Structure formats: C-alpha cells, structure tokens
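lol ok so funny story. i was supposed to be doing the assay writeup but got distracted and ended up predicting the structure for this chain instead. priorities right. anyway since i did it might as well share w the group, maybe its usefull for someone
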Amino acid sequence: MPEPWPSRFAAAMRDEVRHARLCVTVGARLHAPPPRYDARPVRARLAGLPDPLTRAALREILGDEVRHQRLGWTGFGSLWPVLADPLRVALQREASRGLAACEQQTAGPAMRWLESRRPFDPACAALGVLHPEARVEAFYAAVEKLVLPRLTRVGLDGPVAWKNRYRPAGGRS
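and the output, tada:
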C-alpha cells in the first residue's frame, strides 16, 4: 500500500495500544487488580466505578474509534479501484465473514442475555452500557441503515455480504 495508508494504519494500531494502557491506568487508579481474561472480576469492578472517570476514559477511546472507522472506510474506498478481481471476490467473502463475526460478538451475547431473562443491572446503565434489548435493536439498525449501504458505496455488495454471512467460504449468493 502506498503512503499515507501504512502511516495511518500504524497510528490506529498505536491508538489501540494506548486504549488498553488507558484502561489499565484507570483501573489502577480505582484500586482494581491488574486485568485478567475472566469477565467476572470485570463485571464486579464495573459495578463500583465512579461514573465521571469511566466516562472520560470511554470518551477518549470513542473519539479514536471514530477516527479509526473513518480511516478504514476511506482507505478501503481508495484501494478498491486498483484491486484485481480475485482479490475483490475474496474481500466480498471476507465482508460476509466479518458481518457474521460482528453479529455473534455484538448481538449474540445480548440475545442470550434476553433469553435467560436475567435482570439488567442499573449500575451498567449508569456507565453507558446499553440494555441488551437496545443493543440488539441498535446492532441490526446499524447494519441495515449504515453498514450495508456503506459496503455497497465502497464497491462491495452489502446486501449479498449480509445474506451470505453464514454460508461456507465457497457458497454462492
């Protein structure tokens, strides 16, 4: 890829590392133990976090994430015209796989939460966590109204990518 894309993607990677460090720093200031890959301590820690500090950290991360998504869309749109057809076909399949992964990661846990009929902790809402029902609705609205049209604008077929998200790699639309 020609410049400025490698530099822009490297900057986004540095932001992600900074986000992880910011979260660790905020946790340390709140006397939380170092991060572990077990969700139970994280849930317990979230219940007691002071709202202004968590909001400040999330606001910082959100600003960077907005910049990263713009970089991804503009970078992809700039490269699409110069890509060979076999790579375009591969990227169409990858878009389908990415949509499936997004659905499983974002909507899936919220749907399982709703199926379990567990109550939603108001402390989570105070931190800005969406109720699982709102999360599911927001996910599917964003896919339909934002993601699929944008995929189509950059050269992919958004509706076909969505339709094929759970088809095997060799599956046809």
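The mean pLDDT is 83. The chain has seven helices and no strands.
back to the writeup now i swear
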